[in-house]
């Protein structure tokens, strides 16, 4: 090949390569957007305490609305996976992320306090709820629902204390950081 032919060949291959890369980038961003959309729907399903299978119903509604408003974008909406299994895994991923964020905040606390409440839900199951309030070195106060534990069987003091301990272990709250005050 002459030098001119090589340059032409390199330019041609370069153009083909960049068009293929753009194809994969476009597909990747569409898939990322579909995944992001499925997280939004899963978050709202969990937030509003709806059935996990409602994701499929939401998708049907989205597709019908899409047919009316933007039929050319229907493929984008069809790529959003909202099956019961996907919604469940998205909610679990959101839970892990929120728990991780809370654990990192707890790790930065200089002092913290725990409040707990025990009540019975609609199914006659006793629930123990732990709230944590902490202050970091910048005197920023954080107050969060730390966890909810089901009390199976009895609700004696030893049962409540056991679930309290397990809740602290799950969140990795150091006992030495808990500020204890007694009120009588």
UniProtKB/TrEMBL annotation:
This is General transcription factor II-I repeat domain-containing protein 2. The lineage of its organism: Eukaryota, Metazoa, Ecdysozoa, Arthropoda, Chelicerata.
């Amino acid at each position: 090949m002459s030098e001119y032919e090589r340059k032409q060949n390199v330019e041609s291959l370069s153009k083909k390569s960049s068009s293929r890369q753009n194809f994969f980038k476009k597909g990747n961003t569409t898939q990322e957007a579909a995944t992001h959309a499925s997280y939004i729907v899963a978050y709202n399903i969990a937030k509003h305490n709806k059935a996990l299978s409602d994701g499929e119903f939401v998708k049907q509604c989205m597709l019908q609305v899409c047919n009316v408003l933007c039929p050319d974008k229907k493929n984008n909406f069809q790529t959003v996976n909202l099956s019961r299994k996907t919604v469940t895994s998205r909610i679990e991923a959101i839970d892990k992320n929120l728990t991780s964020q809370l654990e990192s905040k707890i790790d930065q606390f200089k002092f913290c306090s725990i409040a707990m409440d025990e009540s019975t839900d609609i199914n006659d199951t006793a629930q123990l709820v732990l709230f944590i309030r902490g202050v970091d070195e910048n005197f920023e106060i954080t107050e969060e629902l730390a966890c909810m534990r089901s009390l199976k069987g009895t609700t004696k003091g030893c049962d409540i204390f056991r679930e309290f301990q397990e809740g602290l272990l799950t969140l990795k709250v150091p006992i030495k950081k808990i500020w204890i005050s007694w009120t009588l």
